[in-house]
Amino acid sequence: MPQQQMDVVPTKAGRVKIRYAAGVLTDDGSRISVLAAWAAPGVRDFGFVRFEPGDEFTEHYWRDRWYAVKEVRDSRGTLKGWYCDITRPAVVRDGDSGPAELVVEDLDLDLWVSADGSQVLRLDEDEFAASGLTARDPDAARQAMSALDAWERVAKEGGPPGLLTA
């Protein structure tokens, strides 16, 4: 069970996308894992999966890797799959008169892996192309594409659990 609380703060292009509370499960200095409830209002239907109130996310962030992996379960505990965000390495900082913050910059690319591994979907490549990151920060763009390619390979060859150890 989570002991310490912290706020997860995903950003995109310098703006806070959302802020939500999470309980820290583990922190080994490189990877920090937290447990959080679906934080957005209402239901988000992607067509291949629905995120909705009652869903629980076990989220894994790395301070030295360009991605985050979120294991998604419904309110009954049934695994829906893994949502993999391509991000800059996570940063944990003291909160301003509140809980610590886990800040991560979303780089638009995502990968969805269904619970049974039958669906491995690359997402938002059009948003990534339109973001201008390739021109603005070519090294970050290369890191992002490399992480997405590696995730896809691991998901197809090693199965979803490999996403946490790759």
UniProtKB/TrEMBL annotation:
InterPro entries: DUF402, FomD-like_sf, Ntdp-like
UniProt organism field: Streptomyces benahoarensis
Domain of life assignment: Bacteria
Coiled coil regions, renumbered to chain: none
GO molecular function list: hydrolase activity
Pfam families named among the record's database cross-references: DUF402 (PF04167)
Gene3D superfamilies: FomD-like
Annotated SUPFAM superfamilies: FomD-like
Name this polypeptide is given: DUF402 domain-containing protein
Keyword annotations from UniProtKB, A to Z: Hydrolase
Hydrolase listed as a keyword: yes
Domain DUF402 span(s) in chain numbering: 48-150
